[in-house]
Amino acid sequence: MTLTRPFLLALLGAAVAQAGTPDAVLRRGAYLVQIGGCNDCHTPLKLGPRGPEPDLARMLSGHPEALKMPPAPVLPEGPWAVTMAATSTAFAGPWGVSYAANLTPDKETGLGAWTEAQFLQMIRTGRHLGQGRPVLPPMSVHSLRAATEADQKALFAYLKSIAPVSNRVPAATEPTVP
Hints:
The chain is an alpha+beta fold. 35% of the residues lie in helices and 10% in strands. The protein has helices at residues 4-19, 22-35, 38-42, 116-125, 141-145, 149-161, and strands at 45-48, 51-54, 83-84, 90-93, 96-99. Strand 1 and strand 2 form a beta hairpin.
């Protein structure tokens, strides 16, 4: 019986150590991307055999730079105040027009030049690079704030590990005032 306790403690220690391995952190980040629905807005669609489907060759690369959007429609008065492009990568509302960002590690057009500290600061402040313009709807940075710091870091580690895609997303535009 006296060997049982040291054995269990050794197993627990090994399990805790395993949870912090780079592979485990990346798996956790991939899981968070999946359950967080990140691909729903940040991965462009392509036409598949059953209709629109995520274009995984451009996974998390944001609104396609080659897709020039016409002006957003005039928003109706009342509670219906948001429109979304058929691509699921461009959105218009009282904030103006926002485009899903390139979350790949491309150094010129994505998160490649971001540090982990900047990513965490963006989550904490709700501002681009932690100090710029506000992160715009429909991105729910508030949900990310509820995640543990370990999960926020796992998310960033995973985003830095995926294939970089060069895709310069258009800048957000201010709302049109009639």
